[in-house]
Design brief:
By secondary structure, the chain is an alpha/beta fold. It is 30% helix and 31% strand. The protein contains eight helices and 13 strands. The strands form three sheets. The chain has a five-stranded mixed β-sheet with strand order 3-2-1-4-8. A five-stranded mixed β-sheet has the order 11-10-9-12-13. A three-stranded antiparallel β-sheet has the order 5-7-6.
Length: 307
């Protein structure tokens, strides 16, 4: 009897849209990509959001066979820092101290995760530490419980987008690169080099024209090295743009104004096997940069060793 297909699902619940990528767990290839606008009725609460997502998955014929789900929380109000640790102290104590200092909260009120990152700016052993209010994770779990989905992993959206970059562009990983996640009212920069995190910058839109504001402020941030803790922004080799604003006319050109490095759209499907992609080449080309977070989440389940 043929083995039933099981899926690793990367689910990106954004401000306006839900995006998912389903990887075939046995073949490690993309089989389903979906995007839907969030219905205003879904916003009434976790139960309504979960039920809406469950109905959407049923339409995609993904109501069965899901092995595990990874979902994201926005990194815009989260701690994402490279910290150098004193090896004479317990690692967990050092990480929790940093998280408490950053947030001003009891670390019991925080969801905290970490990943070894080689050395920091002073060549001491370093950890990439992520921390966010535990209530945000509880809310996400409530949504997925209502959707009857097995939430296995939680990650920050910008980290997932950076994972997607690393897998799809291995020839770039030794160079200083900025992965830019531009959503409707925020822009995040993940600085990365040699497959290591070297900084995180966040810009929140304040004006009534967020795309124009984020393109201008994002360009300034890339030139000044906003959030960069190791290396110099003058060494920037490339910018890989993803997120909701990536397809907005003129956004990438404005973001790249004044930069010596080119701005490229992050093709989330550049290097991952995707048997049905040829028949949907035009549609996938348009939405691919908006699927970077969802793909990175799915990859975290299939490949492991991700934040």
């Amino acid at each position: 009897m043929a083995k039933k297909t099981q899926y690793f699902i990367g689910l990106d619940i954004g401000a306006e849209n839900c995006t998912l990528v389903a990887l075939n767990a046995q073949k490690n290839q993309i089989e389903i990509v979906g995007r839907t606008q969030i219905d205003p009725l879904w916003r009434r609460g976790s139960l309504e959001m979960g039920e809406g997502i469950r109905h959407w998955l049923s339409e995609l014929k993904l109501d069965k066979g899901i092995k595990a789900v990874a979902a994201s929380i926005s990194g815009t109000h989260s701690m994402l820092r490279l910290i150098e640790v004193d090896e004479s102290l317990p690692l967990e104590d050092s990480i929790r101290f940093e998280a408490r200092t950053w947030s001003g909260k009891n670390d019991n009120d925080l969801w905290i995760n970490s990943l070894s990152q080689g050395t920091g700016p002073h060549n001491e052993p370093a950890q990439l530490v992520a921390a966010v209010a535990r209530s945000s994770v509880h809310s996400l779990r409530g949504i997925l419980d209502a959707a009857s989905l097995p939430l296995t992993e939680v990650s920050l959206d910008i980290v997932a987008a950076a994972n997607s970059f690393e897998v799809n562009y291995p020839s770039w990983t030794d160079r200083l690169v900025a992965v830019v996640l531009a959503d409707t009212r925020s822009l995040q920069i993940c600085w990365t080099q040699n497959r290591q995190f070297v900084g995180h910058g966040v810009i929140l839109a304040q004006s009534t024209n967020p795309a124009d504001e984020l393109a201008l402020e994002g360009s300034n941030a890339l030139q000044s090295g906003l959030g960069l803790v190791k290396g110099a922004s003058s060494s920037l080799n490339g910018v890989f743009l993803c997120g909701e604003l990536s397809g907005t006319a003129g956004f990438s050109a404005r973001l790249g104004s004044g930069l010596h490095a080119d701005v490229r759209l992050l093709d989330a499907f550049a290097a991952i096997p995707f048997p049905s992609a040829e028949a949907m080449a035009e549609q996938l080309s348009e939405i691919s940069p908006r699927c970077a977070t969802a793909l990175g989440l799915a990859l975290s389940l299939s490949q492991g060793d991700r934040l």
